[in-house]
Amino acid sequence: MPELLLELFSEEIPARMQGGAARDLARLFGERLSAAGLAAEGVRTFAGPRRLTLVCELPSRTANRSEELKGPKCSAPPQALEGFLRKTGLSREQLVERDGVLFAVVERPGRATASIVAEAVEAVVRGFPWPKSMRWGTGTLRWVRPLKRITCLFDGAVVPFEIDGIVAGDVTEGHRFMGKPGAFSVSGVENYRRKLSERFVVLEVEERKARILERGRALCAEAGLALVEDDGLLEEVAGLSEWPVPILGSMDPAFLDLPAEVIRTSMRNHQKYFAVATNLDDQSRSAANSSDHTSPSTAIKLAPRFLAVANIEASDGGAAVAAGNARVLSARLNDARFFWDEDRRDGAFAEWLRKLEGVTFHAKLGTMAERVERIAALAREIAPLVGADTDLAETAARLCKADLASGIVGEFPELQGVMGRYYVRGLAASPLPAPAVADWSAVRDQVADAVRDHYRPQGPNDAVPTAPLTVAVALADKLDTLVGFFAIDEKPTGSKDPYALRRAALGVIRTFLENGVRAHLSAVIQPRINYLAERAAEAKARQEEPHRHVTPDRIDGLYILASLQLAMVPDELLDFFADRMKVLLRDQGQRHDLVDAVFALGDDDLVRIVAGVEALEAFLATEDGANLLGGYRRAANILKAEAKKHPGEAYDGAVEAGGMSAAEERALAEALERAEAEVAPRLADEDFAGAMTALARLRGPVDAFFERVLVNDPDPAVRLNRLRLLNRVQGEMGRVADFSAIVG
After folding, report:
1. pLDDT tens digit string along 356-378?
2. Closest Cα partner for 203 from 383, 8, 51, 428?
3. Quick one: residue 547, left, alpha or beta (phi over 0 = left, psi -120 to 50 = alpha)?
4. Residue 314 CB neighbours (<10 A)
5. Which residues have a Cβ under 8 Å from the Cβ of 587 and sit 6 or more positions away?
């Protein structure tokens, strides 16, 4: 089929927007073509610093189409008929009558693909969903940066159209500095690729990334060093250069006395440089290349070198570029050293704790110091549940946010926690008057690790904390966030989650599950609700003081507002956790309806819920389980139907043994008694598999009952007794899970 080549050439496109732009171009263009009856094949998009490109194969024209349009009824007013005729361009005689309704059969001839492409490109360009866009000159077109050229060829010929004064053609440009001067024409996809390559433009981002890695590794290996790889940084620098040229530079070795995370962050964020290590084993290489480049890795020892990626092949091999980059990096690291030295002076930690009193966490949730108080109180409550010392948990919680007021974290916010660990380890004694720590040197490292890791997990692939002290502080931090924002009605809506509450809830769930934390969520949440309720009562009392002529302070307003939401928070939060549990277990291959079935029992012990879901899944996979589920549904349907026929009639009464005339109903009653005697203790021991096995023994008696017993017996007493028996079946199964929530 004929090939289409579309290139949108502009000023520099931000690297972070390129990947999304390539996907949007393919999606939007495909939707436009599909709406016009065209199916594109082999669609590929490419994004780079100055161009978005799309190539595909298309038929030369669309097929002729016959379309039937439904019109008004034959009895409709004349005005309705006239409007329909105008719409279709047909006469009354050309309409077809069917069942009293008029139909028009409209023959639509095929269209040339070039004309459809011209319309599609203009619509896509004018409505392109850039995160940020701009206008320039006197035109009305918006684009991420000024759009300079549009290259559009179909089957080797220019597709003629114009957008805001930009006329489509067969001309594009190569590398800004290294390419042959001026624009050049292209005749097709392969010709376009070849000419770009001749003019120092690598079209595909994956090829640019491969060049950076291969050359970067080689340069480091030649120097006896190892490249500290970083997927996120690689993606970014590949979007900054059309002809990437890695250059190995040197920095002052004196800077290596700074924390490695500070050096790497300064290189990465400010200069887009890769760090270089003296050696990397497989484990440290994996840690260095994690999604969180601040991850601790004691095995990484940085070398006084860096790898920069230039967009030009310098005549001197990059020596001047490397020297210039080294000077800029030195200036950045000098700033970092100043903050590092300031942060380590005597009394700095106590000063940061005081500064938190003036740092607003949220206008409706008080200062950071007040948040620390809440986290510390909650950490004390959680500590016994996870095997941590209560006083030590409170100490770590009171120190965990102090580094937010430090100079380094002010410069590099992503190092919060990481720098806190360094600063805590540098303390000769605890900066807190209470709770007293008998031997600070013996626990200092534990506290420091808790300060660093209490933010974890920060994403689905991040490891959860495992040290008991860290688990206590991490859970307290996330639960305080969730309770607070739910209390002020700042819950996630749709795709919006500005306070990352979904991530916090998932972090709590993973921490509970992977550490086997046995606690009821409601028991952990409720003290936070009580705390806010107490503050709300105090604030309200202050507001009602006589002769109070000042405007209510922020905290008064905060807690009065919070008190309006407190009653709903526990149920809303538990529902929110249930939704996050479904997401997590679904990602692990579990069924969401099984989570619903177990959650419906009102249990909020996450470890026990997961065990119940796993046992339920295994049970339903057996023949007995599947058939018993069918029996449960049949019983539920009968009870529901009878409740509608006889409103007010209760089926939860005792089953009369003397009222059972059929052998099958007596057998079912006996099986139920045995199951009831066995299921309860097994559930108490959390032997869910054993409880399911006990339920499975009901399968035969239930099947026999439905095969041979008439539930709706003419005798009202017999009928009621049998309905009560079915209610017992439903109730006994309902002790294990809500089987009505199971789908399929």
Report:
1. 999 989 888 888 998 999 999 99
2. 51
3. left
4. 13
5. 460
Question: What's the rounded Cα separation, in Å, for the pair 580 and 599?
Answer: 12
Please, how many CA atoms are within 13 Å of residue 35, restricted to the half-sphere of its CB?
11
Among residues 264, 266, 244, 206, which one has the least CA distance to residue 18?
A: 206
Partner residues linked to 153 by β-bridges? 5, 158
Specify the pLDDT at position 141: 94
Q: What is the DSSP string of 414-478?
A: GGTTHHHHHHHHT-SS-S-SSS--S-HHHHHHHHHHHHHHTT---STTSPPP-SHHHHHHHHHHH
Contact indicator for 697, 632 with CB cutoff of 8 Å: no
Count CA atoms within 13 Å of residue 176 on its CB side.
Answer: 14
Output the CA–CA distances (angstroms, integers) from residue 636 to 268, 360, 361, 491, 724, in the order listed. 62, 54, 51, 36, 12
Q: Is 345 helix (H, G, I), strand (E, B) or coil?
A: coil
Q: How far apart are CA 71 and CA 599, in angstroms?
A: 52
Distance CA 533, CA 525 (A): 13
- As a whole number of angstroms, the distance between CA 729 and CA 217 comes to 68
- Which domains are present in the chain? 3-61+113-198 (3.30.70), 65-107 (3.30.70), 205-327 (no CATH), 350-587 (1.10.3210), 617-741 (1.10.730.10)
- CA gap 223, 513 in Å, rounded: 46
CA-CA-CA-CA torsion for 271, 274, 275, 278, nearest 10 degrees? -150
Query: Could you tell me the two tokens for 476?
Result: 């307290």
For residue 193, report the phi and psi dihedrals to the nearest 5 degrees. Answer: -60, -45
- Residue 328 CA: distances (Å) to CA of 152, 272, 307, 609, 677: 42, 12, 14, 55, 77
Question: Per the structure block, which two tokens stand in for 624?
Answer: 């007995």
- Across 519-544, b (16+ Cβ under 10 Å) vs e yields bebbebbebbbebbbebbeebeeeee
Contact 260, 235 (CB under 8 A): no
Peptide bond into 14 cis (omega under 30): no
Chain centroid to CA 129:
21
pLDDT by residue (tens digit) across 40-90?
Answer: 999 999 999 999 999 999 999 888 777 788 889 988 888 888 898 888 888
**Separation CA 583–CA 623 (nearest Å):** 28
- Tens of pLDDT along 641-674? 888 888 878 788 888 887 888 898 899 989 999 9
**Residue 134 and residue 149: Cα distance in Å, rounded?**
16
Cα–Cα nearest to 573, from 604, 607, 533: 604
* Predicted local distance difference test score (pLDDT) of residue 563: 58
Structure token pair of residue 334: 């000098």
| Structure tokens, 510 | 């993973």
HSE (side-chain half, CA atoms, 13 Å) at 321: 19
Residue type, 628: L
Question: What token pair was written down for 511?
Answer: 């921490």
Rounded to 10°, the helix 521-543/468-487 angle is: 50
The answer to whether the beta carbons of residues 307 and 245 sit under 8 Å apart is no
In the block, tokens 């009102």 appear at 602
What number of CA atoms fall less than 13 Å from residue 734's CA on the CB side? 15
Distance CA 317, CA 300 (A): 29
Exposure b/e, 451-473, CB count within 10 A at least 16 = b: bbbbbbbbeeebebbebbbbbbb
Strand partners, 166: 163
Q: Whole-prediction pTM value?
A: 0.80
Comparing CA positions, the residue from 481, 531, 473 lying closest to residue 506 is 481
- Greatest alpha-carbon span in the chain: 104
What number of other Cβ atoms are within 10 A of residue 426's Cβ?
13
% the chain with pLDDT above 70: 93
CB count in 10 Å sphere of residue 500: 16
Q: Helices (DSSP H) in 109-187: which residue ranges? A: 113-126
Tell me the backbone φ, ψ of residue 282, rounded to 5 degrees: -60, -40
- Cβ contacts of 111 within 8 Å, gap of 6 or more: 36, 61, 62
